[in-house]
Amino acid sequence: MLVFLDIDGVMVPAKAWQRPELLKDGFPAFSSKAVCALNKLIDTDTTIVLTTSHKARYTLEEWSSMFSSRGVVVHHIASLEDNVHHLSRKDEIVNWFSQHEVHEDFIIIDDDSSLQALPAPMKEHLLLTQSMIGLTEEQLAFAEALL
Fold first, then answer.
1. Its pTM surpasses 0.90
2. Per-residue confidence at 58, pLDDT binned at 50, 70, 90?
3. 91, 103, 117, 140: least surrounded by Cβ within 10 Å?
4. Which CATH class is domain 2-146?
5. Long-range contacts of 99-106 (CB under 8 A, 24+ apart)
């Protein structure tokens, strides 16, 4: 399974009135609810594909370490390409799919409502979170239905 994963508004709730807690690596802590939900969704065959705007700031090895230090065990991690052309998230994802053959289940987890404009075959796999709440276990039933 592929999990296309945003960070801000998914793993780190976006609360403008509250500065997120930064861990030793300088990146915000993940919501414990989001960690619990993601851990229930993924397994050893899952590949996390980072879609976050932070994706180019760290190597995949650093991302793997950051997930691990926040309680998420990721066995396979990848990333969309660096967004050098300043594409929208929707266009980044559409471009990725145009360059890769996908023969497995996938889910796109993001808080960006512009992803509602994804082509129908991709939009059917979209789990849209609320920015200030992030990913929750309550959304897992919906995620499982998408898969």
1. yes
2. very high
3. 103
4. alpha beta
5. 102/2, 104/1, 104/2, 105/1, 105/2, 105/147, 106/1, 106/2, 106/3, 106/4
